Amino acid sequence: QVQLVESGGGLVQAGGSLRLSCAASRSTASLRDMRWYRQAPGKERDLVASITSIPITYYADSVKGRLNISRDNAKNTMYLQMNNLKPEDTAVYYCNTVEIGVDYWGQGTQVTVSS
User: Fold this and answer.
1) 2-22 pLDDT, tens per residue?
2) In this structure, what DSSP letter does residue 73 have?
3) Mean pLDDT, range 21-36, rounded to an integer
4) Could you give the dihedral angle defined by the CA atoms of residues 96, 35, 23 and 28, in that order, rounded to the nearest 10 degrees?
5) How far apart are CA 26 and CA 29, in angstroms?
6) Cβ contacts of 1-7, under 8 Å, gap ≥ 24
7) What is the tens place of the pLDDT at every residue in 36-89?
8) What is residue 39's three-state secondary structure?
């Protein structure tokens, strides 16, 4: 099992930056994939970015060039650096990993971008 705790959300103006963190309760070195999702009010939870243990990264088209995902296995933490934020980035951001077929989610952190 692994517990995930997100932090770093907040209110920011359009064009601003935030860095989200996802702290794991144990070593992340054995976690093959770690992901960031987001869910806006009334919408489905969508994959924003993912990172493997190699690492290989993936980004949704809507965030390419503005968001950067990274992981520090020594600190058991994954990050999401978000730059040039837009109002449409407003959502609750969740970190996620899957291990032996079981999905693990954090509680989420709210990101609100004002225009």
Assistant:
1) 999 999 999 999 999 999 999
2) T
3) 95
4) 100
5) 9
6) 1/25, 1/104, 2/26, 2/31, 2/97, 2/99, 2/104, 3/104, 4/95, 4/96, 4/97, 4/104, 4/105, 4/106, 5/106, 5/107, 6/93, 6/94, 6/95, 6/106, 6/107, 6/108, 6/109, 7/109
7) 999 999 999 999 999 999 999 999 999 999 999 999 999 999 999 999 999 999
8) strand
